[in-house]
Amino acid sequence: MRYEGFALVVWVILMPTACLMGPDYERPQIPEKTQWSQEPSPISSPGQIIRSDWWSNFQDPYLNQLIQTAVAENYNLKILLARIDEAGAGLTTARAAQLPTADLTASAEYTRMGIEGSSSTIDTESYQASASVKWELDIWGKNRRGYLASEASYKASQADYRAGYLKMVSDVATTYFLIREIDEKLIIRERFYKDSLQKLTIYQNQFREGLVPDWQVSRQVAEVKGLKQGLLDLERIRKINQNRLATLLGKPAGDFAVPAATLRDHLQPLTVPAGLPSELLLRRPDVVAAEYRLLAATHRVGGAKAARLPSLSLTGELGVASSALSKLLDQFTLGIAPEIFAPLFDAGRRKADQRVSEARAQIAQNEYLNTVMGAFEEVENALTNLNSRFSQKKLLEEQVKSLERVRLQTRAKFTEGLISQLEVLDIENGLLSAENTLVETHRLLLNDTVTLYKALGGGWPQEVVQ
Asked: Which domain holds residue 276?
């Protein structure tokens, strides 16, 4: 019978620990997306739609260089990388909770004792060593659930990095497009400004000769000052966006400059991706991250339920002691025993912990579904904007051509004295406004293209959450 206790211990060790308390994860039902604002053309695979370096399709080497620098130096990305390391350390801790812990203690003592009235002494030595092992057997899967939750959190942090990467690339591209738009607007306004200065010189000469009244000169002065104010404002906005771009690149604001270049000569809108299957939304890093958080929350519910049940631990101790180091291993003690811990009263703390976990799981599920719905909205809005702005751009191009013809005719009539100065100014201001709107619409088309590529996952591979 003396081996019955040892047999019980062996049975406990070999006992299967596959029982996992709590619900198993199931992906929430997503409302089916049956059609898009733009009908997709047949494709052989979603991977053909978006390349991972989709921004290179703009064929702007300078933009490619900016994004390459930002990927290496952007501090938001560095923060997200550090959070992956943090989550990885947490995963190691959770893995360790499933394994035994062992401690080793060793000591040595030397004593010399003298006898009163005698010169003799007594020397004594003692040596001790002990090892203890403790292993909480994961009968209900509490530690296993904790590990799975940490693993899901780790993968969520990786998806967060991909989402941050995609956002950073999009921000660099759209900020760069805005700077290029301002560059072209500066050229347009500078042209009108120089033309207005020439007119002012003519009116001032005519006024000195008594050919025109002073109010005509004053009106032209006001027009020149208005155009100059617009130039100064555009330069201010350009510097602000240049500073924003510098921050995205990990450079101090003010220490970075973008060389001037026109927008439409360097960047053209891309063709809309040739297919929009709903599976692409599962490639979106933010959707993947939200689902991993839901998975982690589901495992924590199981862990909270298991924490309310009794736990079984196996403890073992091995000790040796001797008065001589050479004989330390001659005698030893060995003890192995299971320990059962059963919660009796904790004022409802464990039950409350379970309710908190269940509530957080419900929150995570709704956040996941909300992220998916937001993804559908972003794709739809991007498609709507693209379709509308392509039409607007075509109309604006026709409007600019018409206004340019009217401007030439108006100036000829004004030279002949057939129309007033005010009519000339109205036509020129209308043309300036139309040209600015055309450039802005071109930039918005580029932005909408970036938004669509981002909304469709930015070329990241599909990841199955399980």
From this structure: 19-100+139-310+349-455
> At residue 9, does pLDDT exceed 60?
no
At residue 241, what is the residue type? N
Question: Strands across the sheet with 332-341, in order?
Answer: 101-114, 121-137, 311-322, 332-341
Taking alpha carbons only, the member of 307, 312, 314 closest to residue 357 is 307
51, two tokens: 């390349």
For residue 44, tell me if it sits in a domain. yes
13 found inside a domain: no
Contact 372, 28 (CB under 8 A): no
CA neighbor of 274 nearest in space, from 456, 58, 443, 31: 456
pTM beyond 0.85: no
Q: How many domains does the chain have?
A: 1
171 belongs to a structural domain? yes
Which amino acid type is present at position 398?
E
Q: Report the CATH number that the domain containing residue 426 is assigned in CATH.
A: 1.20.1600.10
Long-range contacts of 223-229 (CB under 8 A, 24+ apart): 223/196, 223/425, 224/193, 224/196, 224/197, 224/200, 227/189, 227/192, 227/193, 227/196, 228/193
Specify the residue for token string 């490639």: 283
Query: Is residue 105 classed as helix, strand or coil in its secondary structure?
Result: strand
With vertex at residue 363, the alpha carbon angle to CA 360 and CA 365, rounded to the nearest 5 degrees, is: 110
Phi first, then psi, for residue 197 (nearest 5°) are -65, -40
CA distance linking residue 256 with residue 277, whole number of Å: 41
Residue 41 lies in a domain: yes
Identify whether the C-beta of residue 298 lies closer than 8 Å to the C-beta of residue 354: no
Which tens digits make up the pLDDT trace of 103-149? Answer: 788 777 777 776 666 666 776 777 677 777 877 777 777 788 888 88
